[in-house]
Amino acid sequence: MEVFVKDMGLHKFCAKFPEVEGDARRMREMLPDGYDSYLVDYIVMDCEPGMKTCRDTRWHLDGDHRGDNRYALMVTGPNRTEFLEEVFDFGELPDGREIQNAILEERLAGRKARQVADGEIVLYDSRTPHRGVACIQGGRRAFLRLLATNQVRAKNIVRRGEDVPFRSAV
User: Fold this and answer.
1) Rounded to an integer, what distance in angstroms lies between the CA atom of residue 77 and that of residue 44?
2) What is the pLDDT of residues 16-61, one digit of tens each?
3) What domain count does the chain have?
4) What pTM was estimated for this model as a whole?
5) 169 pLDDT more than 80
6) Are the CB atoms for 45 and 140 separated by under 8 Å?
7) CA 50 to each of CA 39, 140, 163: distance values in angstroms, whole numbers, following the listed order
8) Residue 30: inside a domain
9) Residues 6+ apart with CB under 8 A from 51
10) Does a structural domain hold residue 139?
11) Residue 54: which domain range?
12) What is the three-class DSSP state of 146?
């Protein structure tokens, strides 16, 4: 069954999804203490070639690039998230997600990216460009991300089955 969880409090998530509680708690240990909220995004999907793994498969940032959000990410299965091989200072960006993503695409064009290894935990912040991918391989993909934040509040959104997003073809 496909699952979509958005901004669920860590303790509530662990109670609802005990099959990945160990991974979520290990990721929490890797993030710094002192944040107001530790929120989980969890997406399990059956990939088919051409599907998107993310709303935007261009280079993008999570959260506000001027904020202090911290993330731990783990993806298993095919078609995993990509990060730059080298750290890159892209400078300041204007407000507005669409214009930010267009600028990042331009500034990061041609730079080498690496797909995260299956089950690898990647730590990053609100200034770390990354991108989802269009599925090449079929198979079951699980995306688990933990956010340490003082800005975002729990939404506790859960969808299962046919309601799961990211079904559009590229």
Assistant:
1) 10
2) 999 999 999 999 999 999 999 999 999 999 999 999 998 878 999 9
3) 1
4) 0.90
5) no
6) yes
7) 29, 14, 19
8) yes
9) 45, 134, 135, 166, 167, 168, 169, 170
10) yes
11) 3-159
12) strand
